[in-house]
Amino acid sequence: MTDSLPRLRRTLDWVQRPAMLLAALLIFLMMFHVVLDVLSKYLLNQPIVGTLEIVSNYYMVAIVFLPLAAVQLQDGHVKVEVFTTALPPRLIAAFDVFAMILTLIYTVLLTWFVMVEALEQTGIREKIQVGIELMPVWPARWFAPLGAALFGLAILLSLAGAVLRVRGLDATTPGKESDEWTA
User: Which pTM was predicted?
Assistant: First the structure.
C-alpha cells in the first residue's frame, strides 16, 4: 500500500491541477470584471449589468470549491493543535484519522447532495433574472460536485497516509518503520 500512495498522489495532482488553474484564472477574471464594473460605474455612470450575479453564481462558487483538493494535498487546511502539540506523532496521526473519517463522511454527503442539485438544475436549465434578460446559471452548479469529489479523493489519500503513520509506517518512505509512539 505504501508503494502506491506516491503514485496515487501524482495522479490526483494531475487530475486536480486543471481545477486549481481554472480557479486561479477565475480569480483574475473576477478581479478584472469587478474593476471594470467599478470604473464603468464611476467614470461612465453605466455599471456593467449582471456583475453581481456573475460574481456570486459563477466566480465565487468555482473559487471556493475547485481549490479544495489542492489545499488538502498541501496540508493547508486549518488545524487547531492546542491540545495535541505535546502528544506523540502516532497519536496525533490517530486523531487525524478520526478527523479525516468525519470529513470524508461529510464530503461524500456534500458531493452527493450538490450532485443531485446540479442534475436537477441542469435538467430544468436554471436561469436567473439579470436586468431584463435571463442568464443561465446551471453550468455553475457543476463546480460544487467537481470540487467536492476531488476534495473527497484528497481526503481519502491523506487518510491512507495517516493510517500508515498510526501503524508506525512512514507514509513518505515506503516500508520504513517509525518509532513515534514514544517520541
Answer: 0.84
Report the distance separating Cα 1 and Cα 18, nearest Å: 27
Task: Report d(CA 162, CA 170) in Å as an integer.
Answer: 9
Cell for 52?
453581481
The strand ranges marked E within 53-166 are 127-130, 133-136
Burial class (CB in 10 A: 0-12, 13-18, 19+), 124: exposed
Query: CA 103 to CA 141: how far, in whole Å?
Result: 22
| C-alpha span between 81 and 71 (Å, rounded) | 18
pLDDT digits (tens, 9 = 90+) for 128-140: 999 899 999 999 9
CA-CA-CA-CA dihedral for 124, 69, 168, 172, to nearest 10:
140
Where do the structural domains in the chain lie, given as residue ranges? 4-166
For cell 491540545, the residue is: 83
| Cβ–Cβ < 8 Å for 60, 29 | no
